[in-house]
Amino acid sequence: MKILAGFALIAGLLVAAPVAAQTNLRLTVETGSVPKPLQGVWKSRGYGWVVRFDAAGPSLYHLAGDDCWRDPRPEADPDGVLKLWRPAGAAVETAGEPDGTVYQFDRLKALPVACSQTRPWTPQRRLAVVADTFAAYYPLSQERGLDWTARRRDAFTALGKNPDDAALWNALAVLLRGIDDAHAALDGIVGGRLRTRRFGEAAVVMRAKAAPGGEAAWGRAWRNGVLAAPLGAREAAGGRILWGRKDGVGYLAVTAMGGFDPKAGDDDVTLLDATLDEAMTAFAGASAVIVDVSDNRGGYDVIARRIAARFADRRRVVGSKVAVGGDGAAQPLFVAPSERPRYLGPVWLLTSPVTVSAGETFTLSMRALPNVRQAGETTRGALSDQLQKPLPGGWRFALPAEIHRDAGGKVVEGEGVVPQIPMAVFPPGDPPTDPQGHAKALSRLLDLIGGR
Q1: Are 279 and 290 in contact (CB under 8 A)?
Q2: 377 CB contacts (<8 Å, ≥6 apart)?
Q3: Measured in whole angstroms, how far is the alpha carbon of residue 325 from the centre of its chain?
Q4: 203-389+401-449 fold
């Protein structure tokens, strides 16, 4: 699963991250009923979930410290992680898709007592579950110098003895002060109005938001620059893809890993596949192809893997992920060659700090291919799936809960994927509505391809 700002696609919705194709997985609800061996109560390894499978389907609960509450969303499987299952000794494993992340669950004798208790959602309770969840599942807390015990204490001091929702909002700001992570998010209802906070925008995006015209003007300038560059680029797939070929060099920009057809679902790939078929066919015989994800805001990992497959020569391990608070077992991440048209010649991958989430798992997949070299700037460093924790009454928060490593075992969660060929893409001196650095980076890549 993966979600970004606003708990929706910046451009993405909830999905499983790419791992090995799983075998022996079966539907959790077959012919209208959950199989007998799956019925009962199960606790996840990591993620803070308890699931009760009755004959009719699952019910999802969240654990935080000694607290537990039922997920208030109307869907039985709101995060799309319980669609498939298989036995694993005394445990069970679930997944949202045949080649998706595997989630491990251990059987409990009964639903924890706290899960069935009715207690008011006071500001103190809301603060406690947020603090306990971050303490249990936020990745690399020690490495990042995050003392959640001290933060919890300071937040409760800030909350005061007779808090209202405004005091809670301020106390949560104390708890999460200094967090710089694109997958950390908070929504709350204060004074009857929705408040939102996101914790990890790239510096260039923050500068753009503060400038006249805001981020939209910056995005239009980036797009116009691509269309004006000597690349023969044109827009396709709902504007999410820009591609072309000129003077023997192909160009493919992907701005989101989803939402390619406004008339279909965000995860629909029909138009994406058709666009990539046309592009890969046009790239045949090209001396090189530039793949540009310097302005990619993420989306579906399965789509990121689907695009990377157009450049893969064979199935390869591209990295791994491990759940925080789980059993420590890492899940390998793979990419396999597409059966549709591919390009296997030299590829130059352009990244920046705006490259985030599924754009980064795409970068990992591409970096593992021998025909790909990454140029530009280090990616954002937010690869983990975004773990949603909705609370009753309109409050909800989210956080990453996994640690990603590259194919060599290096931790990239919180660090980003470092390019092999550093070059400025969005330097601080760029005018907010005229990303000249990006145009210069494309020009330099063309020089490198031409041997100049």
Answers
A1: no
A2: 294, 351, 352, 353, 419, 422, 423, 424, 425, 426
A3: 19
A4: 2-enoyl-CoA Hydratase; Chain A, domain 1 (3.90.226)
Angstrom CA distances, 298 to 6, 31, 152, 221, stand at 13, 35, 31, 20
In the beta sheet, which residues pair with residue 342? none
- Rounded distance between C-alpha atoms, residue 56 and residue 426, angstroms: 52
Assigned token pair, 407: 């194919």
pLDDT at 19: 39
pLDDT of 4 strictly over 80: no
- 272-313 tens-digit pLDDT: 999 999 999 999 999 999 999 999 999 999 899 999 999 999
What percentage of the chain reaches a pLDDT higher than 90? 88
Distance CA 37, CA 28 (A): 10
Map tokens 């009753």 to a residue: 392
Task: Return d(Cα 140, Cα 129) in angstroms, integer.
Answer: 19
Domain ranges of the chain: 5-116, 123-199, 203-389+401-449
Taking the model in full, what pTM does it have?
Answer: 0.91
